[in-house]
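Q: I'm a student working through a structural biology exercise. My instructor gave each of us a protein and asked us to get a predicted structure, then write a short paragraph describing it. Mine is GTPase Der. I'm not confident about reading structure output yet, so if you can add a plain explanation after the tokens, that would really help. Here is the sequence I was given:
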Amino acid sequence: MPLPTVAIVGRPNVGKSTLFNRLVGKRLALVDDRPGVTRDRREGEAELIGLKFRVVDTAGFEDEDPETLPGRMRQQTEAAVRGADVALFLIDSRAGVTPLDEEIARWLREQDTPVALAANKAEGRAGDSGVLEAFALGFGDPAPISAEHGEGIADLFEALLPHLEPEGPPDDVEADDEDEDEDRPQGPLKLAIVGRPNAGKSTLVNRILGEDRMITGPEAGITRDSIAIDMDWPTIDGGTRPLRLIDTAGLRKKARVQDKLEKLSVADTLRAVDFAEVVVLLLDATLGLEAQDLRIADAVLQEGRALVIALNKWDIAGDPSSLFGGVRHALDEGLAQVKGVPLIAVSAATGKGLGQLIDAAFEVRDAWSKRVSTGQLNRWFERAVEANPPPAPGGKRIKLRYLTQAKTRPPGFILFGTRVDQLPSSYQRYLVNGIRKELGFGAVPVRLTLRAAKNPFDNK
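A: Happy to help. First, here is the predicted structure for GTPase Der. I'll explain a few features afterward.
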């Protein structure tokens, strides 16, 4: 049974993201003193004194033209409220009830979604008058809370409880945990979309979802938080496969990132890459491949994530065949350690290539998660060493004994032998390339660790 949903709504800078982080128990949403930090809806699972629900952080509610960025942010907030079981209306008790609070209250009264009222920043006595003013909004007793300090949790629980179903009995919870354990090996594909600003990441996410879930527009850098969204991707046979899409903020050259908020967004994007299984690097086909794209790709591979490259805006690209060949060649030169990374031409505007892109992501996840038996691995290893024996630096032979796979996701191998510390990097690349090509790992990052066999006479 899906969890009930609570949408936090209020004007800018009243502490919505701070409360969201408090409820989910993690610093997921970016928080800053300036207003308007949050733009897209961010969701997370929350627990409040045993009450479990899904909480949605929304952008500050502003009265702006729908065509402007604040106006598009408001549309996302309105959609979140309409889809919620209860709207948690948050005001700043120290500022008191403002005209914008009153406008939000009027709008909420017109909706079908029940409303719970909370007055934030109520620690100490500075917020007492604002809490009293909140009674006039017509949503019953306001819950005085401090999201930053964790005060008023019991009052918030009482405000939400009438609108949410309590947690099920313990045996239901245990059954859910068992289901999660069964699903873990084939859990949702965690797919992060990264790239430079204005490459079309949010538009691509919306096209995959089939709805305007992310705010888009001509302005660069609209997305600030990394937003994860779960969905079921339809398959050819009529079934579905679980998918967790992660939209991220654009990554500019490090030297250009000066603003504190942009630095936080970049750090959030890098955390999203670390969380993901497969990363789609989205390129703008009208601009081609730039050095920053290769830097992003290299960072993804260094993190050990599977990589897919997507050329977006294919519908308006000039000389497409020449462009594709040029980008393919540049990628193979710039990412020589993983030649053959999937390159897919897509259009977020028209939907071209989306099926091919998602299929490629599932395929590289399978390779990234693959495990080869020790027997199969060493049969290949013996053939590889026989075909190309290791060198003998200084006339002393390097003896390679055997190879074993130590881990997956990304695949990691340990090579045992004598004098392996003198094994040239070129020979290590020969082995890694052979593992990829001959054993079906494709263009995923492969780790090779060298370990010398223990000398039984070391302690004699």
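A: Here are two points you could use in your paragraph. The domain at 187-368 is CATH 3.40.50.300 (Rossmann fold). Residues 260-275 form the longest helix (16 residues). It's a good idea to check both against the output above yourself.
Q: Great, thank you!
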